[in-house]
Amino acid sequence: MAHQTMSFLIVVATLVFAPLCFAHNLYPQFYDHSCPKAKEIVYSVVAQAVAKEARMAASLLRLHFHDCFVKGCDASLLLDSSGSIVSEKGSNPNRNSARGFEVLDAIKSALEKECPNTVSCADILALAARDSTVITGGPSWEVPLGRRDSKGASLSGSNNNIPAPNNTFQTILTKFKLQGLDIVDLVALSGSHTIGNSRCTSFRQRLYNQSGNGLADMTLDKSYAAQLRSRCPRSGGDQNLFFLDFVSPTKFDNYYFKNLLASKGLLNSDQVLVTKNQQTMELVKKYAENSELFFEQFAKSMIKMGNISPLIGSSGEIRKNCRKINS
């Protein structure tokens, strides 16, 4: 009888956790037999890359976002242009800013040596995003695996679906909702801006002409704005880099939210979380006060984002080289 009860409890527990881990048949143990060292290899290459250049953690995390928001988490972003494929790397959100592709090449190369034709580029992106978060001091989570790689890209999808720094709050929320993500996911995932950099061209309008009247954004702290103007002039310096979180730019923590409450969010898309919506403002306050709460929600929202329309089963392929489809 005890044995039957235990079996019943295991079944119930499996069903309770099923939506999180087994959505779309993705599950963390996917490579346990086919490539047992897969996770270890990804972590090792990511750790080396971040040790060499701290900024790489944010770059790798961002690639997973920019991939999942276009056609789902299918590594379409990693394809170079060739034949009928027009690369997403040339889209407005990615041109001159998406980076870290060579790190993914190194991971793929190591995995192909260890277990050829087994680990997808889409799963590498998901694992690298988690590892980048952990290495910089953020939360860990079990990454559901089993995605396959797309055989095509969508330049228009990349131009239209990825939230832009100067989008209105409503536009950003709509773009998240179209991916099945809600307002809580929006605030938690925006918290990834606790690490990394942004270019002058992404926030210049806030410094000089926020509303088309030639004036700076009223919601931006004046002394912070003056600091930014010193290296982000009215014209020129487009590629000059600025920390998204100037307090602890290479540490995954909750200072991003504290900065927003002090009117020191760098991007318009950051600051609107406090100025344009009551619900998001309350969440910002909660995460600013409680980093554990933020970490917990960030992990949940990353799993949810990683579940956007993956290719599974016989769909897509396992690319040998993340930059091109198998011929």
Automatic annotation (TrEMBL):
InterPro entries: Haem_peroxidase, Haem_peroxidase_sf, Peroxidase_pln, Peroxidases_AS, Peroxidases_heam-ligand_BS, Secretory_peroxidase. GO terms for molecular function: heme binding; lactoperoxidase activity; metal ion binding. The keyword Disulfide bond applies. Residues 25-326 form the Plant heme peroxidase family profile domain. Ca(2+) 2 binds at residues 194, 245, 253. Substrate binds at residue 163. It is an enzyme of class 1 (oxidoreductase). Residues 1-23 form the signal peptide. Pfam families: peroxidase. GO terms for biological process: hydrogen peroxide catabolic process; response to oxidative stress. The active site is at residue 66. It comes from the Eukaryota. Its EC number is 1.11.1.7. Belongs to the peroxidase family. Classical plant (class III) peroxidase subfamily. Removal of H(2)O(2), oxidation of toxic reductants, biosynthesis and degradation of lignin, suberization, auxin catabolism, response to environmental stresses such as wounding, pathogen attack and oxidative stress. This is Peroxidase. It comes from Camellia sinensis var. sinensis.
